[in-house]
Design brief:
The protein folds into 2 domains: about 180 residues, Ribosomal Protein S5, domain 2 (2-Layer Sandwich); about 150 residues, Alpha-Beta Plaits (2-Layer Sandwich), CATH 3.30.70.890. The chain is built from 8 helices and 14 strands. Helix content is about 35%, strand content about 25%. The strands form 3 sheets. Strands 1, 4, 5, 6, 7, 8, 9 and 14 form an 8-stranded mixed β-sheet that branches. The two termini are about 35 Å apart. α2 crosses α3. By secondary structure, the protein is of the alpha+beta class. Bound molecules: ligand DP6. The site of ligand DP6 has 17 residues, from α4.
């Protein structure tokens, strides 16, 4: 597949050094990306809320490093971190064909998360999105382009190559990645924002209840690979695309109950797919199931529109409209906190996407 953006030729640039910095949020998928092929291409379309309080801040100072190739130093929360550095180096080396300037730069990268590293929150989406924003801005500065605005589609394309879900963290409010008839302008190559969304979804909450901060036993990348041999995979890809069609209508109508049902069905499907992979595995913990039961009981008893979703881990994402914030707070404090690891909750909300820091 060809690259749909201009590749900058930097050979005559007079810019030799500079500094950029971006804050990029995480996101929570309502319809999940689970299964991929080729070079980071999704098997089905996915749709997520862009968050605001769970984010990564990344700063990159760059200088020309002619004829030496890509040079890199990496600090995570002000400490050297070899595994992260190696991951970023191999990612950046893999995209030099699109960003030739990287082959002539030394980069001092420094990154930190707003949430504790050991919180069990997937940080690859916000981390890869922040690096992609920085790299695209550096590329643009050195190319001395007329426009100072980075092209979000190009950033999303780059972020996707680092981690599929990162592609969706670049757009405000709701992002969709993967070609789908119901989403205007959608593509397998980058995410786009979702238009025609009822106001109730623009202030939605996502309280992330940390059940376990331990590292996952099976990574998302390995989980995607297991979908290739899963006998339900084709039915699943069709189901996900059908759910995008339904969700698009729900988002327009503002039907919170239909939204919550679909979100929960998707969470259960994702984990069911893990349980029927070969080899099978389970990422939910007893506390996850206890909270699911409590949420459903509470909803049935009180009629309060509070729902959950899960990503590829045991933590509960509690989803609810802004109008029931007080009820949700009381419910979390009285009922759900005992199931969390040391009372850990990250209170998050739908957000506006990347912010510049420099
Ligand atoms: C369950 O984006 O982490 O969170 O592309 O291999 O980096 P890679 O996978 P990743 O997978 C995310 C899976 C998910 C669902 C989703 O965010 O859509």
């Amino acid at each position: 597949m060809s690259y749909p953006f201009e590749i900058h030729n930097q050979s005559s640039s007079s810019i030799n050094e500079g500094r950029v910095g971006w804050r990029c949020p995480s996101n929570i998928a309502i319809v999940k990306y689970w299964g991929k092929h080729g070079r980071q291409l999704p098997r089905n379309a996915s749709l997520s809320f862009t968050l605001s309080n769970a984010y990564t801040d990344t700063y990159i100072s760059y200088r020309k490093n002619k004829n030496i190739g890509l040079g890199l130093s990496f600090l995570f929360e002000n400490e050297p971190n070899k595994p992260f550095e190696d991951k970023i180096r191999s990612f950046l080396e893999s995209v030099i064909e699109y960003f030739p300037v990287l082959g002539q730069l030394h980069l001092d990268i420094s990154s930190s998360n707003s949430f504790p590293h050991s919180s069990g929150i997937a940080s690859s989406a916000s981390a890869m999105a922040a690096i992609a924003m920085c790299i695209c801005e550096i590329d643009q500065q050195i190319a001395e382009t007329e426009s100072t605005q980075v092209d979000i589609k190009k950033v999303s394309y780059l972020a996707r190559l680092g981690s599929g879900s990162a592609s969706r963290s670049l757009v405000p409010l709701l992002g969709a990645w993967g070609e789908h008839d119901a989403i205007e302008g959608s593509s397998d190559l980058f995410a786009v924002d979702v238009s025609n969304v009822h106001d109730v979804f623009k202030t939605f909450h996502d309280d992330i209840l940390i059940v376990s901060a331990a590292e996952k036993s099976v990574s998302s990348t390995a989980g995607h690979a297991l979908m290739d041999g899963n006998i339900y995979s084709e039915a699943r890809y069709k189901q996900a695309n059908d759910r995008i069609t339904q969700l698009k209508e729900i988002l327009k109508s503002g039907d919170v109950d239909a939204f919550g049902k679909l979100a929960e069905d998707e969470a259960m499907t994702l984990h069911a797919l893990m349980m029927c992979s070969d080899p099978s595995y389970v990422l939910m913990e007893p506390g996850t199931l206890d909270m699911i039961r409590e949420i459903r009981e509470f909803r049935q008893k009180t009629g309060t529109p509070i729902y959950f979703t899960l990503d590829a881990g045991p933590n509960i994402h509690l989803l609810y409209p802004d109008s029931v914030t007080k009820e949700a707070e009381d419910f979390v404090t009285k009922t759900l906190l005992p199931y969390t690891a040391n009372g850990r909750v990250i209170k998050d909300k739908v957000g506006n996407g990347p912010q510049t820091l420099v």
